[in-house]
Amino acid sequence: MCSSRRRGLPNTVKYKIHHQTVYHYAEPVRRSVHELRLAPRSGPLQAVQAWELQAPGNLSEARDGFGNIVHNFTVSGPADTIAITAIGEVQVSTGHDDAGRDGHHAFRDAPAAGEARVSPLYFVGGTPLTAAPPEMQAFAAPFLAAGHEVPALLALAGGIADHVRYAANTTHVGTSAAEAFHLGSGVCQDQAQVMVAACRAFGIPARYVSGYFYDPAATELASHAWADVCLDAGQDLWCSIDVTHRCVTDQRHVRLAVGRDYQSAAPVRGILEGGSGETLQVNIAITPLAD
């Protein structure tokens, strides 16, 4: 287990984040509708101090049933380039509760007063991307046989990281947990979805998390994914597990959105008319700031 105390990390870290996504098209897009989950929300693990989105259209803002901040915009004219930029500052801390199950590894993520949000039990149900075939259930069973306290979850995460080895460019955004498990390789998205699928197969609510990870030596992980596992649905008590790094999340992690799988937490989604020959450029810069 790689807790923040063992790594000697400070209690809080403030980051400046610059995230640009640029789509280029050989044939111009005639019309497109876009949905963004590129605005983090403040919560028990982080405080958003400034955030701005820039897009080629008027942005409308709403909250989805998971509590995510969602923006939408439409491009109504021909376009051979669509650029989306997010810039902001986020203060990250351990944020874990000292009381309750598993002590400082747990955090409460209850909806704010007046906010409608799905029950944690909604995250028990599977999706096409998070279905667990029999072989995955058999793999997870020894780890979860005695319950799903944090040590068991970390052991399961380590087992998944060993079985689904991190390897870039071996999967794509439509790869399911079952496919990645069978292949034996994937990226953080795949490892997180296998964790989610394995927990749900045993009736444990789990959700996919998209976000950022700060490590100047591993810039390919700046855009990252991990899993939240519910420890107590009645108390909205969760534990956030980074399968790729085999640890509970810490001050290196900035949360963007949660969902049932990648599709419902994706930073950018869209529907296009025209626009063949798409190429994508993503640039993310994460800079620690002095308090």
From TrEMBL:
SUPFAM superfamilies: Cysteine proteinases (SSF54001). It comes from the Bacteria. Residues 180-245 form the Transglutaminase-like domain. It comes from Cupriavidus yeoncheonensis. InterPro entries: Bac_transglu_N, Papain-like_cys_pep_sf, Transglutaminase-like. This is Transglutaminase-like domain-containing protein.
